[in-house]
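Appendix C: a fully annotated inverse folding record. The material below is reproduced so that readers can follow the format used throughout the book. The structure is listed first as tokens, followed by the designed sequence.
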């Protein structure tokens, strides 16, 4: 199901407005760990709420090439347009730019070297990490867990 709020946003996006900031700041979604466990599958919970990483090559979204929008699996906020998706060869869905204002970042020290973690700006759900080996025009690679996203093809938002 696609909520009417997302459809409105997508219509807005297709109409040329690129940021939701036109409509004021994002209303944060806050839920307890228990509530998230009821909404998400165990695999989604591990990634979104515990900063887990799915195995490379495991996501069906790797092969997704249709026009549309990738939304947060936790709260349905649109995070990436199919226009910025590309095949990075890493086995994770990859994008060179997010939808403006819809992701936030922080430094992650889980590995020895710091990495830039990014998450949904509305529900805080972990999505992936940003690397500096992406294509033009940004040179960035948003390496995303497929389980943290849901794809909505363009034709289904008409
Ligand atoms: Zn979210």
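Designed amino acids, in order:
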């Amino acid at each position: 199901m696609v909520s009417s709020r997302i459809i409105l946003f997508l219509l807005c996006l297709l109409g040329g407005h690129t940021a939701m900031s036109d409509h004021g700041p994002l209303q944060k979604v806050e839920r307890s760990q228990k509530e998230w466990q009821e909404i998400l599958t165990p695999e989604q919970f591990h990634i979104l709420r515990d900063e887990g990483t799915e195995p490379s090559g495991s996501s069906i979204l790797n092969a997704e090439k249709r026009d549309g929008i990738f939304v947060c699996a936790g709260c349905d906020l649109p995070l990436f347009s199919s226009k910025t998706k590309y095949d990075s060869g890493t086995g994770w869905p990859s994008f060179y730019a997010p939808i403006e204002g819809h992701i936030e970042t922080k430094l992650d020290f889980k590995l020895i070297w710091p990495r830039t973690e990014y998450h949904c700006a509305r529900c805080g759900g972990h999505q992936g990490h940003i690397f500096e080996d992406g294509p033009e025009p940004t040179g960035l690679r948003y390496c995303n867990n497929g389980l943290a996203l849901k794809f909505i093809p363009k034709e289904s938002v008409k």
